[in-house]
Amino acid sequence: MERFEVTGGAPLSGEIKISGAKNEALKVIPFAVLVKGAFVIKNIPDIADIRTQLEIFKDLGGKYEFSGNILHLDGANVNKSNLGGGLATKLRASIVYAGVLLSRFKSVTIPFPGGCAIGRRPIDTHMQAFLDLGAKQIKENDNYILSFKNFKSKSISLLEQSVTATENVLMFLSGFDDEFVVKNCAIEPEVDDLVRIINNAGAKIKKNGRTFTIRGNCELRLSEEEIIPDRIEAFSYLVAFIVTGGNGTITNFPSRHMKHPLQVLKKCKANFQISQNKLEVFENDFLDPFRIKTGPYPDFPTDMQSPMSLIAAKAQGKSQIKETMFENRLGYITQLKKMGLQARIKNRQTVEIVGGNKLKGAEIDSLDLRSGITLILAAMMASGKSTINNAQIIDRGYENIVGKLTKIGALIKRND
User: Fold this and answer.
1) How far apart are CA 391 and CA 8, in angstroms?
2) How far is CA 41 from CA 20, 32, 146, 222, 335, in A?
């Protein structure tokens, strides 16, 4: 088991650059299955989840070269549509291969999804969408087998506003030379930018609220694209500066995709200024409490709620966080309580935090990706030394975490 060792108490200072959006990059890779010929994607984060997604692509027959955040993809030789077992079970984002493989081969085998630390994450919305469109489904040996011949309907409504289900269905439909309507879609920035890339490949997708109209194209082609910066990483480092009492600059900062969380931080009296794609953070020892509730974009992002617990810890007064997206996402609170956080979990969705108390170093366990980064930030604002177990979980979504934090003054190292 890998672990981080952090010595806290020092304000961060300096400049840090935000990497490409994990939640978009993971979907662009499968899209290569439908694109005719090779193409290049820039600003791809070098993180564990991307490496796993690329290995799945290679296992299916695809070719890639990845260096310096530039990814060359070629799906021309993809020759199988079976994702059952193996690598696909290690990465939930592998589900988005279902749409592109079903579109290209008219059949796909995918493993049953498992749970994870933040709760059940079923693929019902994905499966029902494909069934509504005309696919057939059977279950066999812990796998789903989908087959497709003809469309039963060309207008469907998703069961929920799921990001991955929206992307899965849009990519599936983009490979057919026909017109479709998909309602109740997710509209996160990563979805919008993936749509931009799909359109540049030759499809025509338009958005009206949460309804997308799609005109597909069986001859999709790309040359060179670049994905947007990662707003979740950007928010994490912004909170890092704030809670350590630091001053610094964050470049490649996607402020236009972060209006709601930035408004919340401003109301807390966090001191920062935005200029184009750069954000400057200034020291501020006094923060006000807050109340937030997570929800689909443009509401407060679930992936940003755990770092907000540290804003609450520093604020003067009582704050409340309500998580509406995942059933177990407040599990990290028990780890922060080991460090002295004054918190009361009212129910599985809501926690109240009383701020103004100092955190102390402790040995704590990273339960999932987003809580993991929160524990690192907590260790940096705490007095003394902390050990964060399961470091490899954080590598799934944060590129060069030790290098980036060390550059701005954090005392952090990795141990096996």
Assistant:
1) 17
2) 11, 10, 29, 10, 38
Asked if the domains 3-19+229-415 and 22-226 are classified in one and the same CATH topology, the answer is yes
Q: Name the packing angle between helices 231-243 and 259-267 (round to 10°).
A: 10
Residue from 227, 249, 229, 230 nearest 238 by CA? 249
SS3 helix, strand, coil % of the chain, rounded to 5? 35, 30, 40
Give the Cα separation of 29 and 225 in Å (integer).
12
Distance, CA of 158 to CA of 140 (rounded, Å): 25
Q: Domain residue spans in the chain?
A: 3-19+229-415, 22-226
The residues assigned a catalytic role are: 116
The three-class DSSP label of residue 143 is strand
| H-type alpha helices, 269-361 | 305-314, 332-337
Domain spanning 3-19+229-415: CATH superfamily: Enolpyruvate transferase domain (3.65.10.10)
Q: What is the pLDDT of residues 205-260, one digit of tens each?
A: 999 999 999 999 999 999 999 999 999 999 999 999 999 999 999 999 999 999 99
Task: Kindly list the distances between the CA atom of residue 287 and the CA atoms of 104, 235, 243, 255, 264, in Å, as whole numbers in the listed order.
Answer: 53, 17, 10, 21, 11
The superfamily in CATH containing domain 22-226 is Enolpyruvate transferase domain (3.65.10.10)
Q: Is the pTM of this model over 0.90?
A: yes
Cα–chain center distance at 389: 21
Residue-wise pLDDT tens digits, 328-343: 899 999 999 999 999 9
Nearest to residue 51, comparing CAs of 31, 36, 71, 34?
A: 71
